[in-house]
Write a structure and sequence with these properties.
Residues 343-368 are annotated as: Disordered. The protein is an alpha/beta fold. It is built from 17 helices and twelve strands. The protein is elongated, with a radius of gyration of 32 Å.
Amino acid sequence: MTSKKLVNSVELCADDALAGLVACNPNLQLLQGHRVALRSDLDSLKGRVALLSGGGSGHEPAHAGFIGKGMLTGVIVGSVFASPAVGSILAAIRAVAQAGTAGTLLIVKNYTGDRLNFGFAMEQARAEGISVEMVVIGDDSAFTVLKKAGRRGLCGTVLIHKVAGALAEEGVGLEEIAKRVSLVAKAMGTLGVSLSSCSVPGSKPTFELAADEVELGLGIHGEAGVQRVKMAPAEKIVTLMLDHMTNTSNVSHVPVQSGSSVVLIVNNLGGLSFLELGIIADAAVRLLESRGVKVARALVGTFMSALEMSGVSLTLLLVDDPLLKLIDAETTATAWPHMAKMSVTGRKRTREAPTEPPETPEATAAGGGAAKQMTLVLERVCTTLIGLEEHLNALDRAAGDGDCGITHSRAAKAIQGWVKEGPALASPAQVLSKLSVLLLEKMGGSSGALYGLFLTAAAQALKAKTDLPAWSAAMDAGLEAMQKYGKAAPGDRTMLDSLWAAGQELQAWKKPGASLLPVLTKAVKSAEAAAEATKNMEAGAGRASYISSARLDQPDPGAVAVAAIFRAILEVLQTQGA
């Protein structure tokens, strides 16, 4: 089965993609009759060296995203994963030559088709009297034994675009640029790892991976790598990559050692989430620094992709101050990141947290028995929520991301950790205030914010008194805060439905002679009935409100969780004979 792609046609997808980039970037122009993009200010380059690169489509933003002052003059684009046509390469060379440039440097990734087509075009241009040089970049660090074809050209090529572009802006001559970037390329290596293959429009995936496998050392055209390894945490995968790249027994290794200074690229191969990319970047920086390597600059993003491949490549380039100056030089290329011109290593990455205001003494304090009772209640609530994790997740999948159980379990574990520390449970108000902070920090999401609001408001009502009317007033205050900021109302199919039902029953505590357990028992039953009733409601707030009511045939997970919390509280108090 072929993969789904948002294209107009398989045949024209490369043309359409390049046209779209040019349409949105006034600094670029298409070369009529060819799949070529050039700087729109080409005539301003008289007397300077022009830089042309390119290759197959499917590697976006490479290569056209790196056109601009301080980087490439233009690119020649092939079909997806196919080398560009010789005629188009030659047309691009002629175009920049006729604009009065002082020679043209072709920057070519080391693939047979690219070498042949760019090389043939160069020879034809030379025969016409045009000054042209070509550098072939091979930065692949996957192969431990040298292949006849040499190292493949990967994401490190982008750094060559940058260095060559900076040199051209300085007015350096053609032969000197070619010589210097060739030396830079020898101090560079790239290694990729992927969780999936990719598929050319109109075709099936290029290879298959088992659910517990990752591919190490693969190329950027969907070709398989050098090794398949078992799925592991990101840090272990990054360790494996760095070990492979820097192993001196590997003929294609990067000679990085303690004391070295490097530029690091963490490159998204197309389908990796930015969340995963950040985790990998963090691991790469920490692991390099733990080996005594100075990370001078770190580029994180998508620079050279392989369509939708869910993977990442790491590039290491050994640098000194003169080379860093070229890396830092200004460019207008849209795909080059705006990064700080300072070292990553050696910078303070954390700021001390602000001091918290001193706790004000409460008018009411809990005695030993009450403190023990609060501890038992918290423990029972936590074990209940942890036990419901999978059930709440299942209910939540109908309306969203299926993480309601995870967030409640995370909150419960945070509370368990706090209780284990043996805090002094001075008063109900202080306990509720502390719980609100814990949930806001640890639970996350809208649930954490809503619980935090409820508990913060409820705590205020318990500062002066903790009798039954005060607890009923605390419930009222919490509900008011939730409705004010959450914008939900009873009947909207949210956690508020259970809370509201319980709150209505707890109004009885305000009456003279009211008893704790009979009223609480009614409140728990009402909360459970309200939770069950949410399966027949149309969602009016929250993420579920965006889902067709026909698909919402289960109770709201938040309402179920609230009812379970009330049930846990009641059971502890019944056991204690409150």
